[in-house]
Amino acid sequence: MTDNARRRSRERLEERERGILDAATKLFATAGFHATSTRKIAAAAGVSEGTVFHYFGSKNELMLGILDRFYNEVLNPRAAEILDTIMDTRGRLRALAVHHVSSLAADSALMMRLLQVYVGVDLEILGQDKQSPLRDLNRSYVGHLDRAVREGIERGDLRSNLETRPLRDLFFGTLEYGLRTHMYRHGTEGLDSYVDALLEPLWEGLSQSHRSKTPAQLTERLEEACERLERTADRWETAKH
Amino acid sequence: MTDNARRRSRERLEERERGILDAATKLFATAGFHATSTRKIAAAAGVSEGTVFHYFGSKNELMLGILDRFYNEVLNPRAAEILDTIMDTRGRLRALAVHHVSSLAADSALMMRLLQVYVGVDLEILGQDKQSPLRDLNRSYVGHLDRAVREGIERGDLRSNLETRPLRDLFFGTLEYGLRTHMYRHGTEGLDSYVDALLEPLWEGLSQSHRSKTPAQLTERLEEACERLERTADRWETAKH
Amino acid sequence: MTDNARRRSRERLEERERGILDAATKLFATAGFHATSTRKIAAAAGVSEGTVFHYFGSKNELMLGILDRFYNEVLNPRAAEILDTIMDTRGRLRALAVHHVSSLAADSALMMRLLQVYVGVDLEILGQDKQSPLRDLNRSYVGHLDRAVREGIERGDLRSNLETRPLRDLFFGTLEYGLRTHMYRHGTEGLDSYVDALLEPLWEGLSQSHRSKTPAQLTERLEEACERLERTADRWETAKH
Amino acid sequence: MTDNARRRSRERLEERERGILDAATKLFATAGFHATSTRKIAAAAGVSEGTVFHYFGSKNELMLGILDRFYNEVLNPRAAEILDTIMDTRGRLRALAVHHVSSLAADSALMMRLLQVYVGVDLEILGQDKQSPLRDLNRSYVGHLDRAVREGIERGDLRSNLETRPLRDLFFGTLEYGLRTHMYRHGTEGLDSYVDALLEPLWEGLSQSHRSKTPAQLTERLEEACERLERTADRWETAKH
DNA sequence: GATGAATGAGAGTTCATTCAT
DNA sequence: GATGAATGAACTCTCATTCAT
User: How many domains does chain A have?
Assistant: First the structure.
C-alpha cells in the first residue's frame, strides 16, 4: 500500500467516524439519547449497524465520543483562544459566556439537550465513578473559567473573596438554565443579548471596582481630593498676596 | 354501600395511589426514569402491574403525577408560606433557595435526578407543547420568586432595573447546578451553607442597599466636584496672570 | 374468581409451561442448544417470544427447566421404582441401565444430544459453581446406582472392594458412550440387547459369585463335596457288609 | 525467488498456521467453541481476522484442523508406539488408557472440553454425514484399541467372546466420563491412579487369566462330578436292595 | 499473502401496555 | 377494582464472513 493510499484510507476512516458522530449528535440532540436507537443512527450515517459498533464499541461510548469531540474541538480551543486574546476580565467573562451558550445552541441547534440527558446517562451508567472520562473533559473546560477568575482577582478586577466552586455554579448554572429557557421561548434569536442580561447582575456581584470601594466611598474620596485641591489653591492664593 | 364504606373505599384508593407514587418517585430518583420499569414500580408498591396502569394510564402520566404532587404538596405550599412569613427580601430569597434545594435533595435524596431526566422525557414525549401541564406547574412555582423580586424592588431592597426572566435563570440555574455539583461531591452534607455561598455574590449583584449613592446621585456629586475643580483651576489661572 | 376458574387457570399455565418445555426439548435435542433460537422455541410452542421469557427468565433457565423436569419426572421416579421392585443386584443394574439408556433415547429421540451439549453450556455458563442446581439433580439420580451397589455388596453379590466413583464412571460412561455410538449406527433399534452386551463384561468385572470364588475354586469345592459323598457312600457300604 | 527464499516462505506459512491452531485450541478448550469468536482467535494468534479465514476457510474447518492435528500428532503416533513397544495385554490397555486420558487433559488442560463441544458442532454442522473426516480420524484411532483386543484374545489374555463395539464403549466411555468427573473434582491431580481405579474392574470383566477353568472346562468338570454323584446314588440304591 | 473495515442477519432480552378473568 | 399472563415490537450488541486495498 502506498503512502498515498494509506493516507487516503485514513482519511476515509476519519470521515466515516465523523459521519457517525454527526448523525448521532443530531439524533441525540433532537430526540434524546434513549429515544434514538443505534439502528436509526446507522441509517442516518449511511452505514450498517455493525459499523457503528465497529467504531464505537457501544452506544454509551458513542455518546462519550460525541462529548469528547465537542469538548476538544469546540469548547476548549475557543475558550483558550479567548483567554489569550482578551485581557480585561469583564470582556473575558462575557466572551466565555457567549462562547459557551452559542456552542451549545449551535450546530445541532439543540446540543444542550444532549448534555442534559447525558447527565442522566452518566449517572445511570458510569455511576459515581469519579474517574469517568466525562469528568476529566469537564474539569479541563471549567479550568478556563477558573483561570479568568483567578487572574481577575489578581488584577483587582474581581473581589478577592470569591470561591471557585460557587462561581462555577453561578456562571454555568445561570447560562445553561438561561439558554434552556430562552431557546424554549425564542430559539436562538437574540441569544447574545440575553447572555448580557444574565451577566450584568452577575458582574455586579463579582466585580471589585465599585465594591470594596463602594460608590459612596468613592465619592468621599473624590470629595476629599477636591477639598485638598481647594485648600492647596487657597494656600497659594494667600501666599501670593 | 353506606357512606362510611364509600369513604373507606375512597381512602383505600388514595392510599394505593400514594403508594404507587412513592415507589415510583424513589425508583425514578434512584435509578432514573428509563432504567425503572413499570414492573419494578408495581413490585415496589406491592400492587400488580395492571394496577399501575389502572391508576396512571401510562408511565409518562405516572411521571407527571409525581411532579404534580411534588409541586402541589411540597414546592408551592412552603414557598407561599415563606412569602407570607418573611418580609425582608434578603431573607425571602435565602428561604426560597434553601427550600428549593432541600426539597429537591430531600426525601428521595435525589429527586433532582428526576427533574433532570424528566426534562428529557418532557421534550421527548410532550414535545414543544406549550400547554404541557408541567409548564403550568412550573409557572406557578416560579411566580413566588417573581413576587419576591417585584416586592423587593418596590421596597427599594433590590435594584430597580432587574428583569424577571434573567433573574429566574440566575436564581434557579445557579441553585440547581450548584445542588448537582455539591451533591456529587458531598451528598446532602453542608447543603444549606453552600446555598449561602451561592447566594452571597448573587445578592451583591442584585441588592440596592449598599449603593448608598445610586449612579444618578453619584453623577451629581461628580458634577459638583468637577465644577469645583474647574473653579479652582480658574482661580489659578487668574492668579497666574 | 371461583375455585373452579382458578384451577382451570392454573392448569392452563402448567399446560403452557409444558408446551414450551416440550418444544424447547425437541429443538435442543434436534439442533443443539446454540443452534436453537428462543424465537424458534416460541414459534414451535405457539406462544410469543415474551412468553418464553415470562416463564423461564432466560434461555439458560429454560435449559435448566428441561433438565429439572427430565430428572424429576423421568429419570428419578422410575429409578426409585426399580430399586423397590427388583431385588437381585444383576437385575437391578440391568434395569437401571435400560432405563437410563431408553430414557435418554426416547421421547425426543435425541435427548442425549441435549445432555452432551448441556455439559458444555453448564461449564460455560455456570462455571465451576459447585452449587449448580444441575449438580444437585445429578447427585440425587446417581444415588440410585450407589444404593444398588451398596446393597449388592452387603448381600455378597458384588465384590466388596468396589469404589463408588469409578463405578459411576464405568456405568454411566459406558452407557452414554454406547448409546451414542449405537444410535449413530442403528438408531433406537436393538438398544436393549446392546445394553446387555455392554453390561455383561461389566458384570463380570463387578460380581462376587464367580470371583472371590473363582470357577476353579468352585470346581474344587464341588469335587470336595463329591469326594465326601463318595467317602460316605463307601463307609455305608462297608458298614452294611 | 530462490529455493531458499521459497523454503523460508513455506516455513513461515506453516508457523502461522500452527500459531492459529494453537491459539484456537487454547481458546476453544478454555471457553468453548461457541463462546470463542474468530476475532479473539485472530488476536490471540497475532494475525488479522482475515488471515484466519485465509488459512482455514471457516470456523468449522478450523475446528476440524485442530482435531486433525490432535489425532495425527498426538493421539495416533503414541498409540501406535504403545502397541509396538508393549506386548502384554494388560499393560497395553493401561498404557492406551493413560495416554488417552492424559492427552485430553494435557497441554490445553481441558482439551476434553473441546471434544464434548465438538460432538455438538459435528452433529449441528456436519450432520449425519458418515463421510465426515472426523469419523475417519476417529476410526483410525479406535483401531488401536481394536488391535490390542484382537491380539489379546489370540494370546488367550482376554475372553474369546468379547465383541469389538461394546468394548470400545466400555473403554472410551468409561475413560472420558471418568476424566470429566475426576477433573471436575481434582483437576489433573492423581489422574493416572484414577485411570487404574477405572481399569481394574474392567480388566476383571475382560480377562481370561484368572478363569483358570473356562466355562467350557467348568462344564466338563461339572459333568464329571454329576456322573460321580449319579454313580454314588446308584450304588446306594443297589446297596439298599 | 495479509489486512481489517464493513457487513447485516440474527441473537437474547426487555418492556410498556392490554385484556380476559 | 384488581390482577398478572401474554404480547410482540424494539432494543443493543455479536459474529462469521467478505473483499477492496
Answer: 3
Find all residues with CB under 8 Å of B75, minimum gap 6, and list them.
Answer: B99, B100, B103, B141
Question: Do B178 and A173 lie within an 8 Å CB cutoff?
Answer: yes
Nearest-angstrom CA–CA distance, D42 and A53: 19
Number of Cα atoms under 13 Å in the Cβ half of residue D104: 22
With distances taken from each CA to the C1' atom of nucleotide E19, the closest residue turns out to be B50
**Cβ atoms < 10 Å from Cβ of A39:** 11
The chain A residue lying nearest B171, using CA atoms, is: A174
Q: Which domain holds residue B232?
A: 215-241
How many CB pairs lie under 8 A apart between chains A and B?
158
- For residue B158, what is the DSSP state? B
Q: Subunits that touch chain A (at least 3 Cβ pairs < 8 angstroms)?
A: B
Are D202 and D220 part of one and the same domain?
Answer: no
The bases of strand F with some atom under 7 A from any protein CB are: 1-21
Q: Which chains touch C (3 or more CB pairs under 8 A)?
A: D
Buried b (16+ CB within 10 A) or exposed e, C112-134: bbbbbbbbbbbbbbbeeeeebeb
- Cell numbers given for D202: 474392567
Q: Write out pLDDT tens, residues A171-197.
A: 999 998 888 888 878 878 888 999 999
Each residue of A89-143: pLDDT tens digit? 889 999 999 999 988 887 654 565 555 555 544 454 444 455 577 778 888 899 9
C219 touches strand E (CB under 7 A): no
Same domain (yes/no): B77, B156 = yes
Are B42 and B158 found together in one domain?
no
Q: What is the rounded distance in angstroms from the CA atom of residue B119 to the CA atom of residue B121?
A: 5
Distances (CA, A) of B145 to A206, B86, B139, C77: 22, 13, 10, 76
Q: Which nucleotides of E are covered by protein (CB under 7 A)?
A: 1-21
Whether A132 and A179 map to the same domain: the answer is yes
- Do A151 and A93 contact (CB within 8 A), yes or no? no
